[in-house]
Every structure is written in structure tokens, then in C-alpha cells.
What we know:
48% helix, alpha/beta, Rossmann fold
Amino acid sequence: MARILIIEDNDDLRTIVTDALIAAGHEVIQAADGVEGIESQRNASADLVITDILMPEKEGIETIRDLTREFPALPIIAMSGAGRSQSANALPFIAKELGAHAFLRKPFGSRDLLEAVQKVLERAPG
């Protein structure tokens, strides 16, 4: 299976996502924000990153941009629980424009998460 880096500032959600991925056979690395996440990727290269968009320290959009610059082949899934405002509706498009390969809108179920992970990993180079 894959080594997956989860970047999420909400401890409970990070644990839920981690547990679902471990149950599916993946290895998981956790980070609480974008700064920590990028450092984790530098130290223990993941096969896939799943990052929240709205976080303190370093927003997910900045994190995606920086990860794709430094690790151009790295598959990324963005996720957000931002509301249904016009700007929130633009987040999936912005995330994908900056390099995310998929977008999950919170709340999502384990099935949606695992399907997105499988699809992105299948399309990943290498």
C-alpha cells in the first residue's frame, strides 16, 4: 500500500482520516499544519498527501503550491469544510489549478476518502 501524509489542523478529523487509511492498509504520517507537513515530506517522503485547505500557520493552498514546486510528481488530495459561499465553491478549482489531483468536501465518509485515494494513486506516475 502507500505512505500517506495527512495535513490537518483538527486533531479529531486527522485521527479519523488516519484510522480509515490504516484500516485500509496504508502507512500514515501526520502533520498539524502546512509548515509541519512540508517538513515531514522532506524528511519522510510520502506517496500521497491529503491536506486541509483552511489551516493556521500555512494555508492549504500555499501548502499545495509549495509541495508541487518542490515535489512536482507528488499526488495531492485537497479537502475543505468551508461553507457553500461563492469563494468556498471556488476552492476545488483553485486547489486543482495549483496541483491538487482531487478534492474532498467535508464532511466525507471513509468510502469517499478511500475511493479518492485509490483513484489518485492509480493515476500517479511511477
